[in-house]
Amino acid sequence: MESTRVRIVLVRPEEAGNVGAAARVMKNFGLAHLVLVDPRAVRPAEALKWGRKAGDILEGADVVPDLTAALAGCATAWAVTRRGGRDRGRFHTPREAAAETGTLAGRGGAVAWVFGPEARGLASEEVELCAGRVTITTSPRQPSLNLAQAVAVCCYELSLAGRSEDRALPAPASFEDRESMYAHWARALASIDFLRAAGPTRLRMLRALVERARPTPPEVRFLRGIARRVLRAGKLARGRS
After folding, report:
1. How many domains does one find in the chain?
2. Does residue 155 fall inside a structural domain?
3. CA distances from 136 to 34, 101, 115, 149 (A)
4. What is the pLDDT along the chain (241 residues), one digit of tens a residue?
5. pTM of the predicted model, to two decimals?
6. What residues contact 110, with CB distance under 8 A and at least 6 apart?
7. Is 171 exposed, middle or buried (0-12, 13-18, 19+ CB in 10 A)?
8. Rounded to an integer, what distance in angstroms lies between the CA atom of residue 149 and that of residue 25?
9. Backbone angles phi, psi at 178, to 5 degrees
10. Which of 18, 104, 142, 227 could join 188 via S-S bond, C-beta 3.0 to 4.6 A?
């Protein structure tokens, strides 16, 4: 797969050495696009020390204020986490997620792999922004990996998956288009009183269902067309009451 199609996103990284080591393993496995979200690591010399021969990746890294900005333009995103959630579906192994990444990247979509800060990992709302969750199976005696180690495992799997990408499939819709569609559906479902007290849960279920389908731009437009009809029906119903 094209290295520019895969983003390694480090959210609030705390240790410059981990940032450098992550860049180094990216270089080892042919990846180049590093994104730092609100980084707390501010020692560039230490990052360069650990990022041996990966200075170009460190110097070219995008620095953004939040995860939404990091995911702009992405077809999908994987949260590398052990954080569960009732409505988020199952965990994927790095190999499973890498296989899907290879397919999506081959179709022309950008894919983000999102890693949380060293101390606490990704917040629930950050996991929610990602289409799926990846967990690396480890011993229960020591389940947590160092940030750079987790990046290394995932980059290795991505390098293997890149050999089997499928270029014949259509490109998926962008992150921005999908987020706009979810907002549209939230308004539509509210207009027919479908959400009520269970609104957040139902919206999470809708998001999880659609994200698993990896919709294309025409499919997103189709779904928004249904949302427009639902909004219209809700207005008519209120007018008759």
Report:
1. 2
2. yes
3. 20, 16, 12, 10
4. 566 789 999 999 999 999 999 999 999 999 999 999 999 877 888 999 999 889 999 999 999 999 999 999 999 999 999 865 555 567 899 999 998 888 777 677 799 999 999 988 999 999 999 989 999 999 989 988 999 999 999 999 999 887 655 445 678 899 999 999 999 999 999 999 888 777 788 899 999 999 988 899 999 999 999 999 999 998 887 777 6
5. 0.72
6. 4, 5, 6, 7, 73, 74, 75
7. middle
8. 9
9. -70, -40
10. 227
Sign of the torsion angle spanned by Cα atoms 152, 116, 13, 73: positive
Task: Determine the 3-state secondary structure of 184 from DSSP.
Answer: helix
Q: Which of 139, 164, 189 is where one domain is finished? A: 164
Task: Determine contact, residues 101/166, Cβ cutoff 8 Å.
Answer: no
The residue among 93, 26, 80, 18 whose CA lies nearest residue 53 is 26
Q: Looking at the structure, do residues 17 and 132 belong to the same domain, yes or no?
A: yes
Domain that holds residue 179: 175-240
Beta bridge partners of 35: 9, 62
Task: Give the containing element (helix H, strand E) for 132.
Answer: strand 132-134
- Kind of pairing between the strands at 110-115 and 6-11: parallel
Q: How far apart are CA 90 and CA 93, in angstroms?
A: 10
Domain assignment present for 170: no
Q: Domain end: 135, 164, 193, which one?
A: 164
The answer to whether the beta carbons of residues 105 and 140 sit under 8 Å apart is no
Q: Find, among 140, 150, 131, 115, the residue nearest to 36 by Cα.
A: 115
